[in-house]
Amino acid sequence: MNLAEARGAIQYCNSFTRLRTILEILPQMRFSTWLRILGENWTTCDNISEHLGDLFLQLEGLSGVPQMMTRAERRRFASLPEVVVIYRGCGEANINGACWSVSKETAERFPFLNRYRTAVPLLVTATVEKQDILALKHDRSEDEIITLDPNIINVEPISQGREAELFAETNSLPTLKQ
């Protein structure tokens, strides 16, 4: 399966079926092509945690995978320090995910977005060695770090007062200047 065929195979998937399909087509293509498809679609997959085991089997030991990043993302990745502080906004059930951000503010918003809303919003702080980062994704301005090997150093609740502030920031519409 070439790149165009792979893109065709996932074009009608939704955000909850896309990653499963990407994993299913892996045996039909070169690994480098599969990595490109994975990188192109990573931020449009909503159930990554359901597939962490399969992803770990395929991605273990890889570092700074260029096929998963755009040119701009590769430049940003190259500028990262050797140890990166990362954040994850989540609930208790998904503390150990693969999606992190270098921005604390970005991470804090996630447990308040409708599709990720959780009863007990948490902010997880971790460090990760650059060699344990698979890719950096910036297509949604999140500076998302993809890693399967974070070193969690702190888990704290996000205060209820902060929730209202984050909700307002996340759900506000820009105003038009007169």
Write a concise keyword list for the protein shown above.
three-stranded antiparallel sheet, alpha+beta, 178 residues, 7 helices, 34% helix
Number of discrete helical segments? 7
SSE order, one letter for each helix or strand: HHHHHEEHEEEEH
Q: Beta fraction of the residues?
A: 15-25%
Chain oligomer state: single chain
Task: Report the end-to-end length measured between terminal Cα atoms.
Answer: 53 Å
As laid out across the biggest beta sheet, the strand order is 1-3-6
Helix vs. strand class: alpha+beta
What do you see in this structure?
With 178 residues, the chain is α+β, with helices and mostly antiparallel strands. The protein has 2 domains: 3-59, no CATH class; 66-171, no CATH class. It has 7 helices and 6 strands. The chain has a 3-stranded antiparallel beta sheet with strand order 1-3-6. The longest helix is centred in the last third of the chain and has 12 residues, at 160-171. Residues 172-178 have low confidence and may be disordered.
